[in-house]
Amino acid sequence: MTKKLHPAISPGSAKLIFFFFFFSFILDQSSAQTVAGKVSDATGKGIPNVSVTVKGDNKGTSTDPDGLYSIGAGPKATLVFSSVGFITMDIAVSGRQTVNAVLTAANKDLEDVIVTALGIKRESKKIGYSATSVNTEELVKNRTTNVGESLEGRVAGLNITPPAAGAGASNQIRLRGQVGFAGADNSPLLVINGIPMDQGAQSADGGGQMRDRGDNLANINPDDIESMTVLKGATAAALYGSRAARGAIIITTKSGQKNQGIGVDFNSSYTTSQALNFFDEIRQTQYGQGQGGVKFTTQGQVQGNGQFGWGAKLDGLPTINFDGAMRPYTAHPNNLTDFLQTGTNITNTIGLSGGGSKGSFRASISNTDAKGIAPTNEYKRTIFNLGLNHNVTDKLKLQMNINYADEQYINPPQIGTQGDGIVNFFNRTPVSIPLEAYRDNAFDPVTGGEYKTNGFLGTVNNPYVPIKSGQKYKEERNRLLGTTTLRYDITKWLYAQGRFSLDRYNNFVENNLSNATGAAVLTNADGTYRGSYNINRTWTTDINADFLVGGNHKFRKISVDASFGGNTLRSKFQNISETATNFTVANLYTISNGTVKTANPLGFAESRINSLYGLAEIGYNDLLYVNLTGRNDWFSVLNPANNSKFYPSVSGSFIFSELLPNVNWLSYGKLRTSWAKVGSVAGVGAYDGALTYGINGTLFNGQTLAGVANVNTVALAPNPSLQPFTVTEKEIGLEVKLFKNRLLLDVAAFDKVTTEQIIDVNLSTASGYSASKQNEASLKNSGLETLVEYKAIQGKNFNWSTSLNNTYLKTEVLEVGTPSGTRLLLYFNGTGNEFLGEIRYTEGMAMNQLYVKRAKRNAKGEIVVGANGRLIEDKTSGPIGTGFYPVGSAIPDFTGGWNNNFSYKNLSVGVFIDYKFGGTVLSSTLLNMTRQGLSTLSLEGRETGIIVPGVYNDGLPNAGQPNTTVITAAGNGLQSYWSDYRNYQIGEPFTFKSDFIKLRSISLAYNFTSLLKNTAALKFVKGLSLSASVRNLAIIYKDIPGLDPEAIQSSGDIRAGYENSALPTTRNYNLTLNVKF
Fold first, then answer.
1. Domains of the chain, start order
2. pTM of the full structure
3. Calculated CA dihedral for residues 953, 959, 960, 966, nearest 10 degrees
C-alpha cells in the first residue's frame, strides 16, 4: 500500500491558477509619474486604509497605517479619496508630486457592517441578536500556530481552552456552553468563505494513544483573514440549520481591493516556546528513592519498587540505582524540564494582491515549521490561499476562493495517559535519580529491552526508549476548500446568486510501536519480535450547492429586505486500516514483516441534507427592525417518515437613540431581542436508523470461511422514531454608545434549552441488541454577557483604549433519560487510570459534575478511623448511593478578558489579561506523586509520624474517642496511609478550583513606514513594521498547586475537569516582520 498522500490539487494546477489571475490584473495597470502624500483627519492624524484612485482610470491604492500613499498619476489627473465614515474628496494633481488631503468626518456615523449567516453583510444596528466582530489585527500581533488559541478570553460567551498537547494542537471551543452531553459535538460550526464545517478537533479524548492532532482552524493562516464574526446565539446561526445548533464562527479570507494596483506583502514570524515549570510547588526534594524511611541497597529492590520516594533523607552518599551503578543520593528536581527542549515556530507568508476597476485578487502561500517542547515532536504546514472578485459584466459578479492546506503531525506527545507519557514518567519517579541515568541506560544490556527502572514498567516507561528505538507516529493531512459564487443583479433591487463549494479532506496515519518499549524482553513467546505497525487512511468529502434570490426596496419609511434559497449537502466518508504485529525481522516496520495481521474492511458512509430557507427584514424609519427566518432540513440519516425539521427564528432591534437627537451624551442606543429554535442530528451515523447486518465468517459446522472475519456485529437497534434534538434560545440585549462614541456598553442575557437530546439507551442483551438511540435527555444553559469598551485617551500622538468582557454561565441538567436521575460520563477506578472519582450528568445539577469519595464519617460528620489509625472506605453513602459526593462542575461560571491598547506615534503596545472562575478539577498527578512519596503533601510525618484527625470507628473498644494512633514512616505506614486514598477512591485532598487570572499576552509593535520618507526605499516599500509579543507571561492567581489550571489533556468534554499528566504549558516569545511592496 502506498504511503504517499496525494494532494487534492496538484502544484502545477495551483501555479497556473496563480499566474492566470496575476497577469489578468497586471494588464489592468499602467505607469505614470509618482504622486505621494498623506491623508489625515481634522486633528492631523493619518487615516489608514483610505482608498486613493485616479478619477476615470483603473489605477488605485490605499493608505498605510500612517495615512501615507503613493500612486502613479498624470499631471492633469484628479485623485479621489474615500473612506468609510468620511466625506469623499476630489483633489486635482495640477502637476504636483505631493498631494495631501484632510478628510472631514461624515455628519452621520455609519454603523458597523458585519458578516452574518450565509455570508450576508448587514449593518449591526439592524440585527436583533449577539454577533461579535473580531479584531483581526489582534490575531496577527498575538499570533499562535492555531488561530483559535488567539481568541481565548477575547469574546464574551466564547470559552476557549487550549490543551497542553504539543505543536499544532487543537482547542476546546464552546459558545454559551454545551448543547449536548459530552461525546456529542459541542464545538461551534466553522464557516470559511461560505463553506460550513465542524471544528474537527483530533483531540486526546480517550482511547488510542492519547495524542492531539489539531483541528480545522489550523488550516487558516491569520495573515490571510479579512474578517471574523462570532455568531453566538441560535438566532444568529439559525439559517445554517442543524449544523449550527451550537453557534458559528464566520471567517472570510482576503481577496484584495478594487483600484489598489499590484502589491506584495511579506510576513516572517519566529516564535520560541519554553516549558513553564510549576511542579516545583508540589515536588518534594528532601527524601529519595526507597521505602519505610530507608534507601534501597540492591539493584533488584530498585527495579521492583523504584517508583517510590519513601526513602531516607538525601545525604549525597553513593546509593544503588536501577542499572546497578552507585550515584550520589541528591536531588534532581529539574529532570522533566531538562528533558524537554525549547520549542520553535517559523512561519513565512508571501502574498500578491491586485485590483482594478472590475475586480481584485489576492494569492498567498505560507509555510510553518514548528518543533514542540517534547523531543521529536514536529508540526509542518503549507497553506495556499486564493481570493478573487471580478465583475464579468455590470450585472454579473464572480467570486472565487481556494484554500489548500497540507499538514504533518510528527510524534505528537502522549498526554493524560500512562505508558509512554513523558510527564507521567518524570512525575512518578523519585527525585534522587539523575536524568543522564535514564538517558544513558535506556536499554538493558542483557535482554535488549527497556531497562527496568521501577516496578511500574509498562505503565511508567522511560521516554528515552521510544526516542532511541525510532518509535514514530506520523499523520499527514491535506484539505482543499473551494468556493465559486456567481451573482446576477436582475434589477437595482433584485438579485440571484448561485454557489458551489467543495471540502475534500485526506488523512494518512503511520504508527510504529518499538519492540523495546515498556517490556524487559524483545521477543514474544513464539520467538517473533514485539512491537506493532499500523497504517490508517481516511477520505472525507462535503459538496455544497446552494442558491439565493434576494431583493430590497424602500416604501417611504418602510424598508424591506428579503431572500429565499436552498442548499443540498452531500457528505461521504471512507476509511481503511491495517495492523501488523509479531515481526520476523526486528525493527522493520512494514505490514509484510508482521506474522500477525489485522485488516479492517473499508468503512464507508454517505449522507445528505436538503434544505430550503428564507429570511425577511422589515425596517421602519431607521428606528425599528424586525427579522424573520425559517429553514427546513430533510435528513437522509433519519426515517423518511420522520426526517423533516423546521427551524424558525424572530428577532428585533429598536434604535431608541433616534428618538433622542438632543441628548448630546448619547451617541447610539439599541435594544434587541430574539427567539429561535434550531435542531441537530449530531451523533447519528449515516446508517444508525436502518437495520444493518454483520459478516459472519464461521459457517454452519464451525468451519471458517477463508479470509473473512467476523465484522460489523450489530449492536445498535434501529429507531424509526428518532428525530433531531432541539435547541430553543431566547435573548435580550442592550447596546449603547456614549460621549461621541468613546464609551460602549453591550449587555446580553440568554436562556438556551436543549430538549430531546439524542443518547444511547442500554437495552437488555436478550433483545439481540445492546443499545438504541433515543430522544430523551434535556439540558439548559443560561447566562449574562457584558462588554465595555472605552477610548480613555484620544490625543494627537498618544491614545489609550481599553475593553472588558465578561460571561456568567449557569448550566443545568434537566433530564438524563433512562435510567433517570444520573448518567455516568467517565469513571476512574483508581487502578487502570490511576485515579479516582466520576464525572456525571445529574438531574438538577450543573453539567460535567465531578464526584469523589470522602473518608468515612459517623452520624456527627466526624471522620472515623480503624484500630490502625488509618482511614476507612465509604462504600454506600453519598447522594447517589455509591459513596461518591459532588465536588463541583468542571465548567467555569465566570470567564472574561481585559484588553488594553496604547499607542504613541508609531509605537503601539497591547496588554491582555484573562480569567476563569468557578470550575473544578481533579488532579491525578498530585494523587500519584503523593501516594508514591514524591509530593510535598507526603512530607508530613516523615520523621515523627502523623495522627489522622478523627475518632475511632463504631465497634472498636474506644469508639467515638479521638484518634491517638500514630502512623509512622517505618514499615511503610505512611505509604500505606496515602495508598488508601487511591484504593478507597478518596479524592478530597486532590480536588481544586480551576480558577485563574493570567497575564495572557503583551505585544509591542513599531511602524517604520514614516521613517522612509524622502528615501529611495519609499518607491518600493509601502509599509514596514516589526512586532514582538510574549504569551502566557504570568499566572497572577490560581488555586491548584504545581499545575497550570488550563493543563487539560483534551479539547473534548468527556475528560473535562480531569487532570492527568498533561504537558507543561509554554511561554511563547514571538517576533514578526511585515513588509509591503
1. 31-110 (2.60.40.1120), 131-257+343-417+463-692+726-820 (2.40.170.20)
2. 0.85
3. -70
